[in-house]
Amino acid sequence: MLQEFTLSRGRAMMNFTMKYCDTKQKLLTSYGFKCVIESFIKYDLTKDELVIYEYYIKHFKTEEEFAGSLIEVFKLLTVFNIEDVEEVDKRYAFYFQDKDMFIELVDLLYTYWKRLERYAVVRNTRIAAGLQDTRFIQANEMLSDLILATSRRIVDTVNGHPTRIFRQNTAGATAGLTLNEVQWNCPIEYQGLTSIPFISKVVIQPPFISYTKRNTRDGIFHEHKQNPIENIVLNEDDWFVFPAKVGSMLTFVYFHKDFMVHGIGLSNLFELALENEYIGKKPDIIYIFGYPDGVKEKRTFYHKDKKNDILIGYANYCDDIDYFGYMKKMLLTLHNVKQIENKRLPIHGAMVNIVLKNGTESNIIIVGDSGAGKSESLEAFRTLNDKYIRHMRVIFDDMGYLVKEKEGTIKGYGTEIGAFVRVDDLDPSYAYEQMDRGIYSNPDKVNARVTIPISTYEVISKGYKVDMILYANNYTESDKKKINFFDDLTQAIQVFEDGARKAKGTTTEIGLVKSYFANPFGPVQEQAETEVLVRAYFKDMQDAGVKIGEIYTSLAVDGQTKDGPRRAAEELFELINK
Asked: Residue 127 pLDDT > 70, yes or no?
């Protein structure tokens, strides 16, 4: 990022390396402040505050004159009283004819700034009149204090008395990045990506709340025979790289700055790779998210670059991809396709390592597509913690994979250190408890989501022997047994491969739907290869004494959203407690 400030799609980007404001005058004379004032007048006042807009625009005639004079008045009010400001320029006296209107204008401007997603970046190798990485966190805190102090000084001067109630909000950046220039083992076809800086650190100021253009994901990702990113050139002013460890796969996620919230969301979901894990290395996966290819319709697909042994993901720039599901699920699709190539079986579900109070330890997998109840079952496990559990580790919350180890044991591994879950399906107290670390998306909408860290990379990559694998049935109402084990392996495989569930509004699907192996993120695309793996792995698990069954979460049954997963969890604990 080379510009000192950009404002686009409700997202403000501050480049602390190029420009850092540490005084009121620097702040009020900055290019960034000018951009915010002009945007506030043009898009906020004209839309929601026409009375105030018309009051001032009648006097100043044009928005440019209004913006320019407002900035000058702000600068003067931080130094002089009202009478002195009027002496400097008689035109400014108009602002103080209705002081209440002016105070309201200042409050609206501050509220507008607070509504913006605000990001700060420091690029380590380009230090000019900016800021070093080691001072980044303190610098953002200082900027926040400066903005608050400037706003209060202006209001105090107009009111004629000091502020008496102080609300110490985060007025600076809500999230920040430190960036490094990195040399990686880049094939000739991707030389146009080499100038993009790599994210080395992420700073988040909670609560982090964002609003996106979309709130559901639609469709699946298909293979594309042509390489969509071969020889493209990305502008270093518009792009960032998040070097993620998606399961065991080194993944370079390139995202456009206009979709910054989804790039920030990655930090709560995937492990950020260390520099020595990617410098001079070739990634397993590359994902380009938000490339402006001139096509208005959504284009999301993947490509197998067999020459360089890199799996390529692609999503073009459009409103339809402005939902974190398109970031997360494409990455998981790429991961799963790669694992299938390596003869490992991707699992769409949840896995936990549970140690009960009687000392019994069990590793349980619950398989199911979106809305089947796997995450809700984990939530039920958590709420029953005091009654049954001594210790619980989440190996994966949404996607994992099975590996047949050299000694023949089937073990489960995770792909993510976090979870992207529906707020409505969490216990309200738990949802509020995550305010200090969660990334919330569209919290007042249907399918409101929060991305939260739930495990560590060391835990998800350790590998846990599978003791029980259950298919999550969210549509069958069962008043009696909530768990049923299969005696017939063929019948069990049929249930798992049917992947039936009742849609719950997390995608655009409606009613009872099916997806192969409950996993439209790899197995559907690579079904022939996956069918071979399913039969081999399920036979090995049966031979090893792994219990294979079905759990009735009843999540999509009216009135059972909370009670269904809880009752199923209680029955499960009673079974393994014997």
From this structure: no
In this structure, the answer to whether residues 394 and 308 fall within a common structural domain is no
In b/e form, how buried is each residue of 300-320, taking b as 16+ CB within 10 angstroms?
Answer: bbbbbbeebebbbbbbbbbeb
Name the percent of the chain in helix, strand, coil, to the closest 5. 40, 25, 35
Residue bearing tokens 């003869």: 343
Beta strands per DSSP E along 36-126: 117-123
Q: What residue has token string 């590359």? A: 286
How many domains does the chain divide into? 3
Residue 15 has pLDDT above 90, yes or no: yes
Question: Is the model more confident about 424 or about 236?
Answer: 236
User: Measured at the alpha carbon of residue 529, what is the angle toward residues 527 and 368, in degrees to the nearest 5?
Assistant: 50
Is 275's pLDDT higher than 60? yes
In the structure, what pLDDT confidence band is assigned to residue 553 with cuts at 50, 70 and 90? confident
Name the pTM for this structure: 0.91
Pairing of strands 547-552, 410-414: unpaired
Which CATH number do you get for residue 201? 3.40.449
Write the single-letter amino acid at 250.
L
H runs (alpha helix) in 177-323: 260-265
Distance CA 481, CA 67 (A): 68
Same domain, 210 and 165: no
Q: Which of 184, 358, 359 is nearest to 275 (CA)?
A: 184
Which among 332, 181, 201, 184 has a CA at the least distance from the CA of 272?
201
Domain range enclosing 286: 186-341
What pLDDT shows up at residue 424?
76
Q: What is the DSSP string of 147-200?
A: HHHHHHHHHHHHHTS----------S-SEEEEEE-------GGGGGGTTSPEEE
